[in-house]
């Protein structure tokens, strides 16, 4: 499966999932994208102390924080970014995930969960450098794709299992 096919399939899964399925997917995915180890690479000269504290608070409480509280934490984070274009990739992943999650909480737009899925795929790609022509060739990328499918369309994994080698 090439990258564009993967994107199209993820979009199809997000659009076709139940409300409970998209919520479970969103919660699991945003939690994965704001995990503490992603924040370890942040240099002190990238964020102000207030921004680092807001980021840590938002990440630690991502499933319990309200959209309004998350909005405020993100404003503090954005105001405290000290670099123009060289933010640590893990920190950038976490901030982006928080922004998509906030928008989902505010507007219940599934497109935000699609974006979370793509950020999650990109996070894996950053670790293993997937082949654009066969994006699922690495075990890590295949596992992430199956995680997405399992959460958004639980019956799909069972059907696929009967057709695989």
Which regions have little confidence, pLDDT < 50, spanning 5+ residues? Answer: 157-165
* Integer-rounded radius of gyration: 17 Å
- In N-to-C order, the SSE pattern is HHHHHHHHH
Strand-pairing-aware structural class: mainly alpha
Measured as a percent range, the helix fraction is over 70%
Describe the biggest sheet?
none
The mean pLDDT is 89
How many β strands by DSSP? 0
**Number of helical regions:** 9
Strand content: under 5%
Estimate the global geometry from the Cα principal axes. Answer: globular
Summarize the structure.
With 165 residues, the chain is mostly helical. The chain is 73% helix and 0% strand.
């Amino acid at each position: 499966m090439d990258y564009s096919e993967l994107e199209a399939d993820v979009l199809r899964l997000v659009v076709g999932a139940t409300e409970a399925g998209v919520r479970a997917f969103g919660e699991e995915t945003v939690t994965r994208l704001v995990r503490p180890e992603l924040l370890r690479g942040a240099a002190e000269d990238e964020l102000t102390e207030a921004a680092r504290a807001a980021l840590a608070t938002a990440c630690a409480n991502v499933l319990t924080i309200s959209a309004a509280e998350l909005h405020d934490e993100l404003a503090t984070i954005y105001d405290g970014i000290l670099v123009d274009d060289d933010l640590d990739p893990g920190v950038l992943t976490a901030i982006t995930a928080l922004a998509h999650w906030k928008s989902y909480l505010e507007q219940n737009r599934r497109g935000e969960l699609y974006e979370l899925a793509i950020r999650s795929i990109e996070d894996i790609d950053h670790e293993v450098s997937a082949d654009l022509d066969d994006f699922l060739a690495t075990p890590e990328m295949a596992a992430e794709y199956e995680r997405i499918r399992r959460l958004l369309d639980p019956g799909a994994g069972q059907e696929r299992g009967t057709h695989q080698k």
